[in-house]
Amino acid sequence: MTSARYNIVGSMLALVGAMATISPAMADKGPGFEDPNNWPQYHRTYNAWRFSPLADINKDNVSKLKVAWIHQPGNITHGLQATPIEIDGVLYYISAFNNVWAVNAATGETLWHYAPKLAPISKQVFYAAASRGVTVGRGKVFLGTLDGRMIGLDQKTGKQVWSTQLTDQKNEYGALFSSPPQLAGNVLFGGTTGGDQPMRGKIYAVNADTGERVWTFEVPQDDPKSWPGDSYKRGGGTAWLPGTYDPSTDTIYIGTSNASPDYFTRGREGDNKWTASLLALDPKTGKLKWARQETPHDAWDFGAPYEALIVKDKEGKDVIVHLNKSGFVYVMDKNNGKLENAWQFAEHLNWAKGVDKKTGKPIDPVYPEVGKTKLFCPNLLGARSWNHGAYNPGTGLWYSHAMEVCNEVVSGPDDPNSLKAISALSLGIASIKLVPPPNDESHGRLDARDPITGKVKWSIRYDMPPLSSVLTTAGGLVFTGDMKGHIFGYDADNGKELWHFNAGSGLRGGPISYKVDGKQYIVIPTGLGSHAPGFLAGAYPQIKDLPGGAALIAFTLE
User: Fold this and answer.
1) CA distances from 338 to 277, 319, 359, 398 (A)
2) CA distances from 373 to 65, 294, 369 (A)
């Protein structure tokens, strides 16, 4: 066993009165419970819970889980980072180099396979090979590609229906879609990579039926107070993770990345809107409804691209709970972005003293310096990487991984000669080194918390930060895995390990659950990948010896 469980004393949650939790019996037809047998969206539902209402697999029988089938795409480059989609007995997922698969969800049999012809320039990009998934709807399967396109495939056959080139990779540092674009009615929207590169972040939207461009939202603003001179043209701020669409308010919520250069801010004095922000956009026009910038004048690579979790506060009002890479979580009114609360997620955090609850700005931030080594916690990968958390309305708890790793940074201007390749990064550093936190060892966690207050119910400590997303179910379970390939099933109430399986290669993608022919399945992408393990190898040299892989493993009861 590779993890050690420990309890956090004195942090038991009062689920009645402290917050408005929803039991499955009370809300089995409400948001988060719709279409219980399927996993139709990236987070299953628009509120980003990653919660399955299915309970056939539960605390009493999870120990009897067995492998039902395994699907291997045949290419292990960067592992499997996708969250599969399952609708009516067919599972759709993406593997390396934008290969899309439709699979029988009960047997693992391949139904169709799409292999795109990628432009040769895509071989020069920095964020090569991997994608985080596909989107299914309107009779099509949608993907964003390594060569900067959005593509629509026929859902039944996998044949290409349309393809639209959206980025100019030669002049935009290889900007590509590493996450699946999302649907908002008949609009398909998404952002690209490039927050760490000298380019202007954009969010694109096309007509989902035809691929015709609808609108483009440019993240860095042409505003001299926010971006001096023409610094906005290379200011970063890309939206590289999937946004969500809330049909109840007809609003897109999508987070943006750090400003560029990351650590050297000379020449971009100002707050650098709208980098490191959560945006609320009108899906039809792309116009900004509201925005909350979480890290003004970001100088630490503390962007805000993570999922917008929607839950109810103690008054029963819908709020967004939004983790920032900085180690702070922001709780805001869903309708206008007004700050309701902010709490500290990272155990080790030294770049600011806190968050001003009135303004939302960091208190007394400490900035990098040229020619001076400074320690910053969290590190540039964040207090958590992009692997998503999960919320269970039955327990009222949000389950999310964390990493306690810091970095030593010396700020410095980029050498223009180093920015000629389209794969070049604009980090603004003379040097960077990942190191353990002061008086502690580098480690990871899985926390079960009240999402509104941040109070911890239970926590599990791992020797290396897990990079898997989390799944929780109405059966009272939490599923996730670690970098060594161990898959765990935990009791959602207390964190007790109830089941485990050794997959042979680490987890980076998103576990899901669904039901076909009366049988519930747990499906877990395996195969360690992405650039995060490479960065973390500075703190964990043993990562370089962990095996690669790529296999989609389905589990069910006998």
Assistant:
1) 13, 9, 10, 21
2) 50, 25, 7
Question: What pLDDT score does 6 carry?
Answer: 37
Retrieve residue 225's tokens. 């107070």
Q: Is the peptide bond before 261 cis (omega within 30 degrees of 0)?
A: yes
Contact partners, residue 469, CB within 8 Å, separation at least 6: 50, 83, 387, 388, 389, 390, 480, 509, 510, 511
- Given a contact cutoff of 8 angstroms between Cβ atoms, the answer to whether 85 and 136 are in contact is yes
Contact call for residues 188 and 205 (beta carbons, < 8 A): yes
Between the CA of residue 122 and those of 128, 161, 194, 195, 381, what are the distances in Å?
Answer: 7, 22, 14, 18, 24
Phi, psi dihedrals of residue 417, rounded to the nearest 5°: -70, -20
Residue 502 buriedness (CB in 10 A; 0-12 / 13-18 / 19+): exposed
pLDDT per position as a tens digit, 45-80:
999 999 999 999 999 999 999 999 999 999 999 999
Instruction: Name the band, by pLDDT with cuts 50, 70 and 90, for residue 558.
Output: confident
Strand order in the sheet with 397-404: 3-6, 456-462, 443-449, 397-404, 390-392
**Residue 333 catalytic?**
no
Position of tokens 């590493």?
178
Sequential DSSP letters for 314-379: TTS-EEEEEE-TTSEEEEEETTT--EEEEEE--SS--S-SEE-TTT-PEES----BBTB-EEESS-
Q: What token pair was written down for 50?
A: 């990653």
Q: What is the number of other CB atoms lying within 10 angstroms of the CB of residue 156?
A: 13
Mention every residue, 6+ apart, whose C-beta is less than 8 A from residue 372: 410, 411
Using H for helix, E for strand and C for coil, what is the string for 292-314? EECCCCCCCCCCCCCCCEEEECC
Round to whole Å and give the CA distance between 97 and 131: 8
CB 176 within 8 A of CB 125: yes
DSSP state of 20: B
Token pair for residue 85? 């989609």
Q: 414-435: b or e for each residue (b if 16 or more CB lie within 10 Å)?
A: beeeebeebebbbbbbbebebe
Active-site residue, from 246, 301, 313, 447:
301
Q: Is 543 helix (H, G, I), strand (E, B) or coil?
A: helix
Residue 528 CB burial class (10 angstroms; 0-12, 13-18, ≥19): buried
The pair phi, psi for residue 64, each rounded to 5°, is: -95, 5
Give residue-wise pLDDT tens across range 374-418. 999 999 999 999 999 999 999 999 999 999 999 999 999 999 999
- Rounded CA-CA distance 444/98 in Å is 30
Q: Give a three-class secondary structure readout of 426-452.
A: CCCEEEEEEECCCCCCCEEEEEEECCC
